[in-house]
Structures are given as structure tokens and as C-alpha cells.
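hey m, so remember when u said the C-alpha cells were messed up on ur end? i reran from scratch. heres the input so u can diff it against urs
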Amino acid sequence: MRNGTIRLAIAIALFSLPGIAGAERAPIVSWGKPGVSFDDYRQDSITCGKRGAATSMKGRSEFDAVMLGLSRQDTDIDIGRSLPPSLSQEDPSQKLARDYALNGAKSRPEPRVKSLQAFLEEHVRTCLSEKGYVRFALTPDQAAALAKHKKGSDERFRFLHALASSEAVLRQQRHD
């Protein structure tokens, strides 16, 4: 199997994208701890993120089903490449695309990927809770200000830290 774990991680990322644009958005939720230093906040987020990312999914029925679907799609690609066009009246590229899509649909990855995502997120939540963090929801104004910062940027991380370390924010905006 070709990098099945990487493909599964990509699938999880794709299926975690926001849904329909017109749907009412859930609040943006983050984690905070009153008075936490920036360095501790950053280190704790890295530690807990790694714990979630390193959690094995092998043996979970959802993981096995998604991997089987991906394996079947790999087989379709390999067979499609090896069949001479003279064996079929059908356009080989159309048959390959159809078979690939059918095997993907048969494995029904969306609910399984969402379940695996929840499983991994639970490990991150547990880690943060053990370190004394609580969840809080950003106000619409805070969410708009956050959106102005590039994802992964130091400015965005510092903006979130300012909220996450504020006792008043955590008390008033706690999200259970």
C-alpha cells in the first residue's frame, strides 16, 4: 500500500473542512489556562498535538474500513494501468475513474473519517485538560480579529495566547 497513513491524514483534513457556506457557523473554540506564559502555552499545544497525532488508529474498525477502501482504489489504478485498451470497448480512463469512484463510495469514508478525527481529538482534549486548560468560545469580534492573522503565524498564536491566558476571558466565555 502506498503511504496509506499519509492519504488517511489528507482525507481527515479534507473532511474536516467547513461545510456549506450558508450554514450557521459554530463558534470558534480554543483552549486556555489563566496566567499561562506564552512559552508554556506554545509547548503545551505542541505536546498535546503530538499526542493526538501519534495515537495509533490500527485495529479500529473505522481505520480498517478506510484503509480497505483506499487499497481497493489503489488496485483499481494499478489494474487500469496494466490493461491493454483492446480488452474493452469502454474508454479505459472513464472505466478507471468510475471504478475508483465506486470503490471510494463503497467504503463510505466520510463518517468513518469523522469518527477517527473525533478519536484523535479526544486524546488532544484529554491532554489539555490534564494540563489544566479549559475550552472557551471566541466572540464574533474576536473571531473576526483572529481571521486577519495568517494561520500558523506567530501573530495569530500570540493573539490566541492573549485570549487564552486571560482569566476574565476564560470565566466569561467558557465553553463546555
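this time it looks ok to me. The longest helix spans residues 61-82. if urs says something different then somethings off w ur setup not the seq
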